[in-house]
Each structure stands twice: as structure tokens, then as C-alpha cells.
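Researcher: I need the complex structure. Ligand is magnesium ion. Inputs:
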Amino acid sequence: MALSEFELIKKYFSDKQITSSYVTLGIGDDGAILNCPPAHELIVSTDILNEGVHFYPQSSAHYVGFKSLAVNLSDLAAMGATPNWFTLNLSLPEVDENWLQEFSRGLHECAQIYDVHLVGGDTTRGALSIGIQVGGYVPSGQAILRSGAQPGDRVFISGALGNAAYINKQLLDNTINYDTSLEKYLIPTPQIPLGISLRGIANSAIDISDGLLADISHVTYTSHCGAKIFADKIPFAEYLKDHETSTVNSLQLACTGGEDYVICFTVAEHKLPDLKGNAFYKSLHEIGVITGQDGVMLLDENNNEINFQSIGYDHFKAH
Ligand code: ADP
Ligand code: MG
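Model: Output:
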């Protein structure tokens, strides 16, 4: 017999012991009771994942569970926050226990790695959709914002780009079929330790979810400045490098494709020595500079501007 709503919550989502001293009460009441360490601020962020948009009907439930939490944690990473708790709003077309088992395993695996606790949520019947809200904290005044970039700042990214864009394009073109072995190239790794280590060093940060150029333009727009990005400095991710032979196509996918979930951040020149001492320095790529003029320019090695038709993903734009 199919599980009831309450049995489902109990079996898959509420049996974990909460060990955080900042979670006074988790799942089971009308609301959770949460705290934050003294002299810290609470950072809250939320993301929805819908079938057919953020994952495929053929995606493994384990991947969907892990990814749902990971993309939310990526936002906390970009703010320099230490994650602490999350809520899960789940809309399910039916009770499929095999799916739930694997979804819950992926979700809890991610939660364990980043030490975050599931403190509540809601469960309804409907099209498959997962809404997660995450909470974390930073010492007061130390959150890294999109609005802090200054002309002269160097622009860095924390990893290579373009795997998800390339795979999604191949799937859309029917050049390949979905295979769960692709998921290792698609699964996000939230850069939480890096984000924490950039407190006091980075002037601004954002996670790359919509596409490098689109996301940098969010930073330059809110910071009232511009940026020059050097095309030859952009690192291509492994799967893209191995499969795409055209450098122009690779560049376009790496610059305008989404779902890379690396952090893009800016650092003032006088803070560069601090950044060089950062444990993650070797994995970083300096790709550009913040300018005083509006707009984001992608430049080739001869300083000529490269333009693409679209700079990134927009849910409400025709593609
Ligand atoms: P209410 O009727 O007040 O909305 P619910 O019956 O929806 O309460 O939920 C009961 C408890 O189970 C609450 O503490 C809620 O936070 C939790 N809960 C419901 N759905 C989920 C879920 N998908 N994951 C985690 N906790 C959940
Ligand atoms: Mg409810």
C-alpha cells in the first residue's frame, strides 16, 4: 500500500539526528526553532528544481537529491557563509518508494558532507518539483556581496567551465542520449570552504549558475562598474575539452552556458598577497579585471571584443 504523507516524511526525511547547537527544534512541529552564533548574521537562500528544466526525467533520483541541495549550498558559498540548516518543499506526482529512497540518499549524502541539517518542509502531490531553502551564517558584516566590486579588482573563478553546457547541448541536439554515467560531469560541488576562506579577501562574489558572462554582469551591474574578461584565460572543463574540437564553440559554451557552480569573485590589488596565501590558490584562475566603464567585455588575445548572441540562461526568454 502507498505510504501516507506522514509516513513518507517520517521514513525518508525525519529520522536524522540533529547535532547542531544552533538548531533548537527541527522537523515535527509547526515550525523549526533556529539560532545563529553570537555576533553572526543569518544568510538565507532558496532555489527550485523542476523536472525538465533542472534535471531530466531519466536523471537518477540520487543525482536529483544531491544536486537539489548542492545548488542551494553554492549560493551560500558565494556569500562566504557556513551552512547550517535547510528545508525541503517536495511536490511529487506519486509515491514511488524506489525514487524516494534514492532521492533521500543523495540529499542526505550532500547534507552530511557539508554538515547541514534538514529542519522542516512541506510535501504535496503535483508535478515533480523540489524547492529547498538553506540557512547559514557569517560573522557580522563579513558576507561577500555582489555589490562590492571596485575598478581595478582582479576577477577570479574557482574552476573550469562548460561541462554542463556541452552535455545539455548534445542532449538537446540528440547527438547523445541521456545516460546516468554523465552525471559525474554534471554534479555540482558547492565551494563552501573556498567561500569561507574568501571572507575579508574578496570584494565581491557570485556563483556561476546562469553562465559566466551573465553572472559577471550581475556583479558589475550591482557594483556600478564593468569588466574585461580575457578569453584565453578561461579554463575549459574536462568533458568539454575531450569532446569539442572547435575552440570557438568551447569558448561560447564556457562563457554563456550555465550550471557550472564555481565561484567567480573579485579581489583588490592590495589583497592579492592574502589571496596567494589562500589554501585554494592553486585551483583558481585569474580571468579578468573590473573596470570603471559599464558593461562586460570578452576580449581575445589581440584585445578585440568577442560577442555572443546570448550571454546566459534566462528562464523566461525564448531559447
Ligand atoms: P503543516 O500541516 O503544519 O504544514 P506538515 O504536516 O506539512 O505540517 O508537516 C509536519 C512536519 O513535517 C513539519 O515539521 C514539517 O516541517 C515537516 N515536513 C513536511 N514535509 C517535509 C519534507 N519534505 N521534508 C522535511 N520535513 C518535512
Ligand atoms: Mg505543511
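Model: Summary of the prediction. The mean pLDDT is 95.
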